[in-house]
Amino acid sequence: MKYGQKMEHCSQSSNPEDVFYEIKILGQLDPQRSKSFVGMTLSYVENDESGLACTRITGAVIDQPALHGLLTKIRDLNLTLISVRRFVPGISPADEASNRPLQSDDRDGID
């Protein structure tokens, strides 16, 4: 597969309580390793932060143990983790950042 192509797995969630995550790993997954992420959408892209080629794994994760299971698979496959991001489908990262509540660090200097 070439970078930018997607390998689709079923990532549609019928449970409104599911949380969606984007996990980036370094390099392109080969077809054998990509089978470890059934239920997720895999896409091969240039990583905006570093300019390196990476695989983006996105989809619904039912709970924290399921997220840890995905991270364990990444570790067990000896893959390099770049980032993990929770997101709301249909909302851009910029919109998420502008609508997030203030953190205690953000309040420094506010009386």
Structural descriptors:
22% helix, globular, 111 residues, 5-stranded antiparallel β-sheet, alpha+beta, disordered N terminus, Alpha-Beta Plaits, 3 helices
Topology:
Layout: E1 6-7, E2 19-26, H1 31-34, E3 41-46, E4 53-61, H2 64-76, E5 81-87, H3 93-99
Antiparallel strand pairs: 1-3, 2-4, 2-5, 3-4
What is the tally of helical segments?
3
Strand order of the largest sheet: 1-3-4-2-5
Low-confidence stretches: 1-13
Biggest beta sheet summary:
5 strands, antiparallel
CA radius of gyration is 16 Å
- Tally of strands: 5
Q: What is the architecture at the second tier of CATH?
A: 2-Layer Sandwich
What is the compact description of this entry?
It contains three helices and five strands. With 111 residues, it is of the alpha+beta class.
Description of the structure:
The protein is α+β, with helices and mostly antiparallel strands and 111 residues long. It has a single domain, classed as Alpha-Beta Plaits (2-Layer Sandwich). It is built from 3 helices and 5 strands, in the order ββαββαβα. A 5-stranded antiparallel beta sheet has the order 1-3-4-2-5, with helices on one face. It is globular. The termini are far apart. 12% of the residues are buried. The model is unreliable at 1-13 (pLDDT under 50).
